Amino acid sequence: METILKKERLSEWVAQIGARATVFAPAFADGIWNFCAVAADTKVEFDHGNTVRPAKGFVFPQREVLYRFRQESGKAPELMETLPAAAPTVVFGVRPCDGRAMVRNDKVFTCGFNDPYYQARRDQVVFVGLACSEPPSQNCFCLSVGGSPHSEDGLDVLMTELDGRYHVKAITAKGREIVEGAAALLDKAQAADGKAAAKAHADADKHPQRALATMEKVAAGLKEHFDSPKWDELARACIGCGACTYLCPSCHCFDINDEITSNVPLTGERVRTWDNCQFPDFTMHSSGHNPRHDTGARLRQRVSHKLLYFVENHNIQQCTGCGRCISHCPVGIDIVRVATEVSGQ
Ligand code: SF4
Ligand code: SF4
């Protein structure tokens, strides 16, 4: 379903959706572009780079309570599950690399075992994507990892900027619902609009990006050079801050802890929080032995998970080429350079 929205009516559409859902859109707050809740009078604009934080937090929050517990002395414990409350949410301005990351996250949380916390959020969040007319960062490389500046994967709607208008394409049933609900604001797209969107996409593909060798070559090279001394060399500057994985749209490792609020009776919460493979204690055994005891081993894990292990498990790369881990690493560690140098491709 393809429609056209005049640019000056974008805020009207957002306000209309805001009457029945919480709406988020990129905004400049606290010195960074980030997804922020949109108030009724907010003017929504898309002329920005990618957000610093990815969209994954809408379906996999940094901290969430899985259940609460209470146990009186001598009695069986009571467990109170805390599934996410109904909270319809629409997120505007999601870049295609973050949409593709959702497909990767779905594979982790809903294939084999269906994570009810993730699924409950995924079902009620609508991702309205924004095609990139040019790479929003000098570190983008979506084309090298099977994506594109106009990929529809993982998105419910894709908006493409044309002259003074947006081409708005509903991709999923959730997407169709919000597009159909705005029939008074959106005009049916004509054949010429479809052609203009296709041209905008083709033009976007021509912009230079960072580049990696093919998925097969990189994966084979990383496997062959598992013991390469380059891992230590390239990881030497790493300070283990974890920014690379926290800001990655497809990193999904978590830890689970009990937070005790009272000892008598015993009450508390079982809490899931993001964890980080770049932290030394991520793989620390209770014996004190750590199989990934240095930064080289931890960098190898991060890069190999993205470009080798995920390929072996799912036949797609986990990395979607957003470039955040490069742009925001305080010491300049660069996944494209690392994968290229280690794999020899
Ligand atoms: S952002 Fe850079 S310094 Fe921080 S953990 Fe990642 S690679 Fe290391
Ligand atoms: S590994 Fe880096 S470039 Fe790839 S998706 Fe994650 S943050 Fe983006």
Explain the overall architecture.
The chain has helices at 10-18, 96-110, 116-124, 173-180, 191-206, 215-224, 230-235, 243-246, 295-314, 324-327, 335-343; strands at 2-6, 22-29, 32-37, 63-71, 78-81, 89-94, 125-130, 157-162, 165-170, 187-188, 254-262, 266-274. The protein has 345 residues and is of the alpha+beta class. The two termini are 41 Å apart. The chain has 2 domains: 2-61 and 82-206, no CATH class; 215-263 and 275-343, no CATH class. An 8-stranded mixed beta sheet has the order 3-2-6-7-8-9-1-10, sandwiched between helices. Strands 5-4-12-11 form a 4-stranded antiparallel beta sheet, with no helix packed on it. The relative contact order is 0.16. Helix content is 32%, strand content 22%. It is built from 11 helices and 12 strands. Helix 6 crosses helix 9 (295-314) and helix 6 (215-224) packs across helix 11 (335-343). Residues 247-250, 306, 319-325, 335 line the site of one iron/sulfur cluster.
What is the topological layout?
Layout (H helix, E strand, L loop, with lengths): L1 E5 L3 H9 L3 E8 L2 E6 L25 E9 L6 E4 L7 E6 L1 H15 L5 H9 E6 L26 E6 L2 E6 L2 H8 L6 E2 L2 H16 L8 H10 L5 H6 L7 H4 L7 E9 L3 E9 L20 H20 L9 H4 L7 H9 L2
Parallel strand pairs: 2-6, 6-7, 7-8
Antiparallel strand pairs: 1-9, 1-10, 2-3, 4-5, 4-12, 8-9, 11-12
Helix pairs in contact: 6-9, 6-11
The structure holds iron/sulfur cluster (2 copies).
One iron/sulfur cluster (SF4) binds next to helix 8.
